[in-house]
Amino acid sequence: MPLKRFRPLSGKCRLCKGELELKLAGNAESPSVCPKCGQGIEPIQNLSAPPARINRKPSPTQAKAAGFQVYKRLGKGEYEKQ
Ligand SMILES: [Zn+2]
């Protein structure tokens, strides 16, 4: 079930702290009000970091398979190509 992030339209809320995550079942419609405070909410568009990538770090093998260069961190600012 995907987690979707929302924020209250006012931008601030003491109950949900200005941001909330809601689990949405399959094709469920996005809720339009905060279940905690009842304010209108809107989904947060986060195109640069889709939720699926936040929780799961790809393994070097997967990264290679996806065509990324994989670097091993040797120390501060040093990387070795694997
Ligand atoms: Zn709220």
Description:
The chain is 13% helix and 27% strand. The chain is an alpha+beta fold and 82 residues long. It is built from 2 helices and 5 strands, in the order βββααββ. The strands form 2 sheets. A 3-stranded antiparallel beta sheet has the order 2-1-3, with no helix packed on it. The protein has 2 domains: 1-45, no CATH class; 57-82, no CATH class. The chain has helices at 51-55, 60-65; strands spanning 3-8, 20-23, 41-43, 71-75, 78-81. A hairpin with a 2-residue loop joins strand 4 (71-75) and strand 5. The site of zinc ion has 8 residues, from loops.
Task: Record the SSE blueprint.
Elements: E1 3-8, E2 20-23, E3 41-43, H1 51-55, H2 60-65, E4 71-75, E5 78-81
Antiparallel strand pairs: 1-2, 1-3, 4-5
The structure holds zinc ion (ZN).
Properties at a glance:
2 helices; alpha+beta; 82 residues; two-stranded antiparallel sheet; 5 strands; 13% helix; three-stranded antiparallel β-sheet; binds zinc ion; 2 domains
A few lines on this structure:
By secondary structure, the protein is an alpha+beta fold.
Give the tally of structural domains: 2
Instruction: Characterize the biggest β-sheet.
Output: 3 strands, antiparallel
Counting DSSP E segments of at least 2 residues, the number of strands comes to 5
Strand pairing plus helix content: what structural class? Answer: alpha+beta
What gyration radius follows from the Cα positions, in whole Å? 18 Å
Strand content: 25-35%
What is the N-to-C succession of helices and strands?
A: EEEHHEE
Number of helices: 2
| Ends distance | 35 Å
Distinct ligand kinds: zinc ion
Query: What is the approximate shape?
Result: elongated
Low-confidence stretches: none
Sheet with most strands: strand arrangement: 2-1-3
